[in-house]
Amino acid sequence: MNKSTAIKEIMAELLNCDVENAETIARDSCSEWDSFKHLELMLTIEEHFKIKFDIEQINKAIDFYSILELVQGVENEA
Length: 78
Description:
Elements: H1 3-15, H2 35-49, H3 55-60, H4 64-77
Helix pairs in contact: 1-2, 1-4
């Protein structure tokens, strides 16, 4: 499974949306995506990809594309 698909599936499961809609969900427009769900989402992504985000990176994760970019960036740093 590629990174994009894995992130979409994680977002869909945690934010109660369809996988096909995961790319269009943003933190400020999804009622399910509160501060607790944000932490759960980021921790789940860290566990899945076996990476760690710092607090600044976690705060930048506002939608599918920003999360994908963060995952790719952290993996490239390793």
